[in-house]
Amino acid sequence: MNEPFSTAGLVGDDAADASAPQRSRLGLWQIVFLVISAAAPLTGMLGAVPPAISLGNGAGIPGAFVIAGVVLLVFSVGFASMSRHIVRAGAFYAYITAGFGRPLGMAGALVALLSYTCIQIALYGLFGFFCTVVLGPMLHSALPWYAYSLACLAIVQITGLRGIDLNSRLLGVLMCLEMGILLVLSLAIVTHHGGPDGLTLEPFAPKHVFSGHMGIAVMFALASFIGFEATAIYGKECRDPKITVPRATYVSVSLILVFFAFVTWAIVCAYGLKDVADVATKQPGDFWFMQSAKYLGGTMTTAMSLLLLSSIFASLLSFHNTIVRYIHALSVEGLLPAKLDRLHPKYGSPYLASYLQTLSVLAPIGIFVMVGADPFNIVFSCTSALGTIGIVMLQAVTSFAVVAYFRATKKDTRFWHALAAPVLGGIGLLWIGFVLIGNLDALSGSDSAIVRAFPWIVLTVAVLGIVLGFALKRARPDIYARFGQ
């Protein structure tokens, strides 16, 4: 690697530590801020809850979030156990490599890059769309959605270059603000004893949770958690990763689970068991703002609109950091050009990987602009659906890779941690993945042939990764041998 930061003369873990993208060390809560920001709680609540209610299980939506959270907590057991033995920036593909070998690991790497990039493109479309809705009237501006998206992209690039410490502090502030306003609204609803049915635990009753299309509701709920798995990606940048990463994983999933369950319970109580699905179907865009105006007033409702934009920005910055670390790791592995592992002389961030990540998003956005794609119905809905398929399937494969790794190495022989939890988590994620594939029209808002081809696109990318693995084994055994190691 070129200066200003060289790994010459270092071997093993020392070399790996030296090539980490940031010299400073992150603490538990800094990692938690980074990954919960990727989940974008406010965006998830405002964007995913109304369709989850109207298309899914209606008043039982809090229970759907509990089910999704429990599945991910079970998944996290094996994921966290693995993080104690393998500390790599490319968590998914490193764990798959350890369990199933390098060809499947390379498939995981390509699918991860595709999936995270799609999600980030989707979020830029969503950001531009909501800017036209929120900022346009405020500023009396008729700027197109992509003007806001490109401005946001530039800010994310500049902020991303400044290093992970600044990013984690900024994301921590934004996360507290967006979660704070939802908590204030929820507590106001509780203080006023809810709506027609009062404060009731009925939304958690099996007759509501398992009513309607519960699988669709769980599908939307799980999509709201995406981003938490990035805890392991920051392993090389945190203090005592074998302790910090598992704790950060459990804390992140638990916080998101409790928060989402409580907030969705409060909003169901506000509308009442009988009316909540009807309102979510007829007025999905105003679903949360109507209750905010009722309980908090116009000023706080306007603040919620602005915090929605900051929530999307926080998620974009968090995913930028995640993808950059994947690119940096793959450059160290030899799959991408070695220059991409260069660190910024001042901030210690992988700046060339950062520029490449921005370019990989800018090009598709430019294509969407040229063809006149709708920022919400196409850019956001469709690309987020493609990204979600990839992430859920990666999580499932990772669960089974954990079992294979521990059975082969015997490094962890605990029944729950090394076998039962990973198998149960993998089965649960596969079920959600197949529900997702079967309901792509609901998730994406389109039933076009392109959308129906999304699972095949993910499978094709995975197959290309496997082919690449075997090709490297023959042509570049040196690169093949060090991949995932």
UniProtKB/TrEMBL annotation:
The entry's keywords: Cell membrane, Membrane, Transmembrane, Transmembrane helix
Membrane topology recorded in Swiss-Prot or TrEMBL: Multi-pass membrane protein
Residue stretches spanning the membrane: 28-49, 61-80, 92-114, 121-139, 145-164, 171-190, 210-228, 249-273, 293-317, 352-372, 378-406, 418-437, 449-472
GO CC, alphabetical: plasma membrane
Keyword Isomerase applies: no
Organism encoding this protein: Paraburkholderia tropica
Pfam family, one: AA_permease_2
Protein name: Amino acid/polyamine/organocation transporter (APC superfamily)
Single GO molecular function: transmembrane transporter activity
Keyword Cell membrane: yes
Subcellular location: Cell membrane
InterPro entries referenced in this protein's UniProt entry, alphabetically: AA/rel_permease1, APC_superfamily
